[in-house]
Amino acid sequence: MRKNFSKLALLAVVIVIAAAVTFWLTRERHGDEDYDYAAAFESLDPASGAPLFRIADVAGHTEAELAVVLGPPWDCESSLYSRRCRYAPGSTEVVFIDGKADWLTVRSPGEVEFNASALTRIGLTEKKPDQTTAEELIWTGLSGLREVRAVSNGDGVQMLRIKVKS
């Protein structure tokens, strides 16, 4: 009985080792060694004044249309009335309502001064804000958008929040 158990245990070990070797030799290589980190962030020059994206190419568009402009989302989550996705350019978060990009938050717009030039990071022309506080600049009805809000972190713009329709 002991002899059969030893043989069975040895056979199990051999099978596990063979499976591990087979997996290792035939696996697809998708690890970090194949990931091009420089290419993933090459469009994010924080000091440049170039737009992260043009809001006209994002606002009111579908998730599939945004994947063309912003690339595939990092992750998405759905709720009863909306779907929220996160994208690379400027750590952009988009809430889709009725299948269209309706609320956008750009959490890292780069080195942007807290003034009307913040609009250029989303492809808009500088314009005097409709409301100004020490922490926020607010534009309404700008390029058909309900509201654009720049929030200060004390040194510059911490985030841009855009409401398209809702």
Protein architecture, described:
By secondary structure, this protein is an alpha+beta fold. The relative contact order is 0.13. The longest helix is centred in the N-terminal third of the chain and has 25 residues, at about 1-25. The chain starts with a helix and ends with a strand. It contains three helices and eight strands; from the N terminus they run αααββββββββ. An eight-stranded antiparallel β-sheet has the order 1-2-3-4-8-7-6-5, covered by helices on one side. It has one domain. It has helices at about 1-25, 35-40, 65-70, and strands spanning about 75-80, 80-85, 90-95, 100-105, 130, 135-140, 145-150, 155-165.
Could you give the order of strands across the largest sheet? 1-2-3-4-8-7-6-5
Shape annotation = elongated
- Regions with pLDDT < 50 over 5+ consecutive residues? 28-44
Beta content: 25-35%
Task: Give the rounded overall mean pLDDT.
Answer: 82
Largest sheet: 8 strands, antiparallel
Tell me the distance between the termini: 74 Å
Structural class: alpha+beta
> Which sequence of SSEs, written as H and E, runs from N to C?
HHHEEEEEEEE
In total, how many beta strands?
8
Q: How large is the radius of gyration?
A: 25 Å
Number of domain units: 1
Give the number of helices: 3
Helix content: 10-25%
Topology (elements, then pairings):
Layout: H1 2-26, H2 37-41, H3 63-70, E1 75-78, E2 82-87, E3 92-97, E4 100-106, E5 131-132, E6 136-140, E7 147-152, E8 157-163
Antiparallel strand pairs: 1-2, 2-3, 3-4, 4-8, 5-6, 6-7, 7-8
